[in-house]
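Please think about what follows:
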Amino acid sequence: MATAILTSSLNSHFINKSQLPIFIMAFLRLRTVLLTTATLLSVFFLAISVDYLTPVVGSGGGGGRMVGGRTEIRDVKTNQEVQDLGRFSVKEYNWSRRRQGYKGNGDVVFTEVVEAERQVVSGIKYYLKIAATQEGVPKVFESVVVVKPWVHSKELLNFAPSTKY
């Protein structure tokens, strides 16, 4: 197609032969811009459709999820990502306590994540209930972690003993 455009342009004397390299470069740049724009628009519309169609096609039971709302993660015990986030939360909490000067046997020891919810925000916010022990005493902690996979980022926002257990 590019050859046909170049040939017709040369034959109809729109450009002279000395301008041909400039014309070719401009044509290639325009083609690159159009392809890049089309690709970005495709990715954008795919992201929008996934975000807005997920509630329609459902996430099983309960009529789907509301965008921005919390959704329960049902396979918590077998979900490796959720269990890893629980371990991350405990590790970050212990590290934070040591950095603040706490010493002794007060470290929290991870057992498992027992409940989890996820919320799409500027990343994915996980609300975790973590079974753990502290000084040999079984406890449940609540943790909030934000994950931004596109920048390989995890941030512990909150970690505290649960008031419900």
User: Anything to note?
Assistant: The mean pLDDT is 80.
